[in-house]
Amino acid sequence: MGEAYDVRSDVEHLYENKHLEVFDRASRLELTKKLEMMEYIARSTLVRILLNSKLWPHFANTDALKAFWALSENERRTLWGPRPQSQVFGFGLVLSSASHLSAMFSGLNMAIFSLS
Fold first, then answer.
1. Alpha-carbon separation of residue 15 from 7, 9, 10, 19 (angstroms)
2. What pTM was computed for the model?
3. How far is C-alpha 16 from the geometric centre of its chain's CA atoms?
4. Buried-exposed string 49-76: b where 16+ CB fall within 10 A, e elsewhere
5. Which long-range contacts (CB under 8 A, 24 or more apart) does 93-100 make?
């Protein structure tokens, strides 16, 4: 997760060139895996919070969020609920060409900056 956070931070602070200037298919596929993992975590976390009304008060404001993280791990796990049965294991990602990979990263950069 630390590596994924570092990449996200680089993109946020306009240093994505560190990861994209030299075209290396293996590195870009690894970046894609990290992106997909982060997206899965973000989406599943938001869905969990939105669908579980018991969690809403804990995410209502900064003080409530701090209080949530101050709970013991067991208390947080009880509130959060069981882990989902399905897990993300492999990414079987097959891209047809280098231009497809390049276009995908261009789109990702545009999407990231439009959210900022």
1. 9, 8, 5, 8
2. 0.56
3. 16
4. eeeeeebeebeeeeeeeeebeeeeeeee
5. 93/29, 93/32, 93/33, 93/36, 95/29, 98/23, 98/25
Between 38-47, 53-62, 72-81, 95-104, the lowest mean confidence (pLDDT) is in: 95-104
Cα–Cα distance for residue pair 91/89, rounded to 1 Å: 7
Helix (H, G, I), strand (E, B) or coil at 7: helix
**Residue 92, domain extent:** 2-115
- Measured between alpha carbons, how far is 57 from 33 in angstroms, rounded to an integer? 33
Q: Which residue has the tokens 């809403």?
A: 56
> Within 10 Å of residue 105's Cβ, how many Cβ atoms?
17
Q: Which two tokens stand for residue 21?
A: 């200037």
What is the number of structural domains in the chain?
1
pLDDT in tens, 17-44: 776 777 788 888 888 888 888 888 888 8
